[in-house]
Structure formats: C-alpha cells, structure tokens
Specification:
Layout: H1 4-9, H2 11-18, H3 21-24, H4 40-56, H5 73-80, H6 83-87, H7 90-102, H8 110-124, H9 135-153, H10 190-195, E1 198-203, H11 209-217, E2 219-226, H12 229-238, E3 244-246, E4 265-269, H13 286-301, E5 305-310, H14 312-316, H15 321-333, E6 337-344, E7 352-353, E8 355-362, H16 366-369, H17 383-392, H18 399-405, E9 410-411, H19 428-436, H20 463-469, H21 482-490, H22 495-510
Helix pairs in contact: 5-8, 7-9, 8-9, 11-22, 17-18
GO molecular function: methyltransferase activity
InterPro entries: C5-Methyltransferase (IPR050390), C5_MeTfrase (IPR001525), DUF6339 (IPR045920), SAM-dependent_MTases_sf (IPR029063)
Pfam family, one: DUF6339
C-alpha cells in the first residue's frame, strides 16, 4: 500500500504513476501488453486511496492524516459512493469525521448508524451549501443530525424524523397526520409474507403513493428518487426508514448507487409525455428526456422487472407508435420482453374514473409467469359515499342531500403543470364534470363547509378530500402549501391500483 504521506509529497507524480501509467512509463521499455501498475483495478484502488488521503488531510495538524484512523475502509467507501453529493467536499468530509469521532456509539452497529447518518445528510444536500458554512457551525449542524441517527438506532426508540425539519405545520401544509411503519398486509400469513419481501427502486416517486401500493404488494424500496423537494419531504415524513434522494433523474446514473443494481423491480410514474405530433420543436421536451432516461436506467440497472406508468395514449395512440417502438427495442436488446396495458383505477375500488397506461418488462422465464390483474368485480364508492362524512364534518346542514346527489364516481383528478397557476380541478371539461356532482372546481377549499354554508350551494374540495378521491390513506401526510400538496395528490397513482399491479408482478417474481 502506498503511504498517504508519500502520496502527498508529490501529488502529480502519484497521479501520473497510478492514474496515467501509459504516460508515466513511456520512458521505460516493457513487453507489449505488460501494463505493470496500469490495470483498471490498480488505478481504481490507488486512486481511491489517494482520494481518501487528500480528502482528510489537515496540513496544520501535528498528524495531518490522523483522521484516517477514525473510519475503516468500508466506512470510507460509503462516503465515496456518495461522492457527488457528499464525498466531493473535503470541508464536509472532515466535519463528518470530527463529529463521528465524538459520538457515543456504544452498543450500536457502526455501519448501519453511519449509513443512516449519510442518508440524512443526502436529504440536506440539495438545500444546503456545506462549503459555505464555517467549520464550527457545520460541526454543530452535523452533530445534531448524527445524534438523530444514533437515537434512531437505539433499541426501543421511535425512528427519528427527517434531518431537515418542516416549517410549522398548518392545515394547508399538513393535511393529515403522518402514518408510521409498514402498512398491514391485506391477506395471508404475516410471517410468510415477511420472508418473501422483494426489493425495488422508485423513480419520479412523487408523494410516494405508488411506492405505498407496491409496499402493500410486498416490495421494499432500496431507493426513491424525485426532483421536487416537497415530494421528497412527504415521503420522508411518512416512511423515515425509506432512503430518498432529491435530484433530477437526468443527473442520476447507476454507478452513483451500486446497491440499485439487480433489484427485483424498477418502477416509476413518469411525467406525462406529449406526442411528437402534438408539440412543436420549440416546446419543452423534458418529459420525453425523462422517459428516455428511465429506459436507459432500466437497461443499466438490470432489475428483474420494470414497471412504468404514463398516459393511456402512450399505450394506445398511433401518435406514440414511434415511442413504443424504440422503448420495446431498447428493452429487448437488454434481454426483456414487454407488454402494455391500460387499467382504470375504478376497477380496483377507487372512486374515480382514472385510466393509466402501463409498461411491464421482465426477462424469461419470469415474463411467461406474469398476468395482468383482473378487475376486483365490486363497484367503487360514489363521490358522495367517499366524501359524505368529510363534507358533514364542519357542520354543513346540506351535506346529506349533497352526498345523495353526488351519486357517481369522480372524473380523473388533474394535478396540473408546474408552469401554470394555483390549484383547481383542471380544464373546463373536468370542471363541468365536477359541477355535475355538485362540486365547485374553480379552486380548492381550506376546510369542509361550515354551518353557515348555504344548503343548496356547491362546495369546493379540500386537499384532504382530493386525497380521498385518490384512495390515499388517511394517515399519509403531505409537505408543502396548498398548490404543491394538491399537485402531489393529483399526479399520484392511486395506491390500490399500484398494489394490484404490484401483486401480479410479485407473484411472477416469487414463482
């Protein structure tokens, strides 16, 4: 092993020797093909050692490399694996080591505690410029986060809340109390179910509604990725043990997180793509880039199964034929067989006429074992049945009559674009459909109608009621103000539909 001191005395020579062997050895005759120190493995190992030594070096200390003794090689590798967000900052890494060295970790698994600590720092990374905080303040902030990790690892303690605290809760920011722990199984022996849990990675995770449905179907996420901060905080608030990375999917690649390779399922509810026939070249094509990045990620991750959700048009419309062709070709080149299907959430107990287009891809023999879920066979509740008690909760005397008149399922909730105004129930056609059910779709209400609300008036939905229409459970809390919260809800896949597809996939994967 090259001592760290030797590396530091002549950094450029070390780099030339280890990382650029073809240049370093040009003076010395050697047999053809003899790379001496220049194999890929050697360059990787010595490069990592050099990175570690220079990252922790404190030239003003009596022992400049003393911090190397704080963590072992495996622990440094955990930081190195997150180098783009954490390990690329010597200022931050030295603070991590100082704080870690002072922690009381007696009786704890060091690897699990460090991993939890780094997860919490990753949640901070998109919002905090670590290099801009002076040393003492950074140490104090990291010490607080590290103590949360220690407390979370102690036996018989409640898991700590996310590292970044939300602003003070208000009715518009948190519409329901947060749920904790895993959802109960719908059926079957709990012990057997626990033995057969499957792993997943969720991209474009949103508020976590699809991941929640997949959790009920037996999938535990290794990682969830979303670009919206409020959505990431929503997931962390409800499932603090899930690892959430808040970043643009276009910037993510598999080598950042090697643990995602070979998981059982890659899933995602992707941004709604527009057909190439319906947009001009000058319009924003971010949604299509995300679609391409998702397919490329599936090919590099090589999960056992892929599940991507989008508009029904992507599955059925001739305008998307070219898109379907390249998606299918790309996945077939990676060894997958694909199938497409449109499913309506109303067929699975959701009080809403909401169709989604699905792509499923599996390798053989798994593909031959997969069958799409069949409708539940029972009628979903009407809007009045789903929201009647909520509409009456504020004392409105017209709630019972309203519930009787709202005697059909809802139209699809429309989350809306980030580029348009506040929260409402969608375009003119959607608002007319809601008006037929006795709902004012021009905006959302802050609370159910009270005793002074006229009996024959049309109430507005609250964000909490919108979540009920999506069949998102009452215990799921949302972070953000009204518009952000409604968009998280409106863009979500109803958990019962995600659960139904997830159970079909789980059966194929476990057979």
């Amino acid at each position: 092993m090259v001592p760290a001191e030797a590396a530091s005395r002549d950094v450029w020579s070390f780099l030339a020797l280890v990382l650029l062997p073809d240049v370093a050895f040009w003076r010395y005759p050697r047999p053809p093909g003899d790379r001496v120190l220049g194999t890929d493995l050697t360059r990787h190992v010595f490069g990592r050692l050099w990175w570690r030594a220079q990252l922790v070096r404190s030239p003003d200390e009596a022992e400049p490399y003393g911090a190397l003794h704080i963590l072992g090689e495996a622990a440094f590798d955990q930081i190195y694996a997150r180098r783009e967000a954490l390990g690329g900052s010597p200022h931050l890494v030295r603070s991590i080591l100082r704080v870690w060295n002072d922690l009381d970790r007696r009786g704890l698994n060091e690897r699990d505690t460090l991993r939890d600590f780094l997860k919490r720092l990753l949640r901070l990374a998109p919002f905090v410029l670590f290099d801009g905080i002076e040393e003492a303040s950074l140490d104090a902030e990291l010490r607080y986060v590290a103590q949360e990790s220690v407390d979370a690892q102690r036996p018989r303690t409640v898991p700590a809340t996310p590292a970044v605290s939300a602003s003070p809760a208000s009715p518009a920011e948190v519409v329901r109390e947060a749920g904790t722990g895993a959802s109960p199984a719908s059926s079957g022996d709990e012990g057997e179910r626990a033995k057969r849990r499957l792993t997943s990675v969720e991209i474009c995770a949103g508020s976590g509604a699809q991941a929640l449905g997949l959790e009920r179907a037996g999938f535990d996420p290794v990682l969830l990725i979303d670009a919206k901060a409020d959505a990431c905080f929503t997931i962390a608030r409800n499932r603090p043990h899930w690892e959430v990375v808040c970043m643009d999917l276009l910037e993510f690649h598999t080598e950042m997180r090697p643990e995602v390779k070979g998981v059982d399922l890659l899933s995602g509810g992707l941004p709604r793509v527009k057909s190439t026939a319906g947009i001009s070249t000058s319009q924003d094509a971010d949604e299509r880039r995300v679609l391409r990045a998702s397919v490329a990620l599936a090919c590099s991750m090589r999960p056992r199964a892929v599940l991507l959700e989008n508009l029904p048009g992507l599955v059925q419309s001739p305008d998307f034929a070219a898109d379907r062709a390249w998606i299918q070709h790309s996945l077939e080149e990676a060894g997958y067989r694909t199938d497409w299907r449109v499913l309506n959430a109303a067929d699975f107990g959701v009080p809403q006429n909401r169709s989604s287009g699905f792509l499923v891809a599996l390798q053989e023999p798994l593909f031959s074992r997969f069958s799409w879920p069949e409708p539940s066979g029972s009628r979903p509740p009407t809007v009045g049945q789903a929201l009647g008690d909520s509409m009456a909760s504020g004392g409105w005397t017209g709630a019972a009559a309203w519930a009787r008149a709202a005697n059909s399922i809802a139209p699809a909730l429309v989350g809306g674009s980030e580029n348009r105004g506040g929260a409402d129930l969608g375009p003119t056609g959607s608002k007319k459909a809601w008006a037929a059910l006795g709902v004012n779709g021009d905006s959302l209400g802050d609370a159910p109608p009270g005793p002074d609300f006229p009996e024959d008036a049309t109430p507005k939905l609250t964000v909490c009621q919108a979540a009920m229409i999506q069949s998102i459970p009452e215990g799921w809390a949302f972070h953000g103000r009204k518009t952000s919260t409604y968009r998280q809800i409106g863009h979500a896949m109803p958990p019962p539909l995600a659960e139904a597809v997830g159970r079909a996939l789980a059966q194929a994967l476990r057979t």
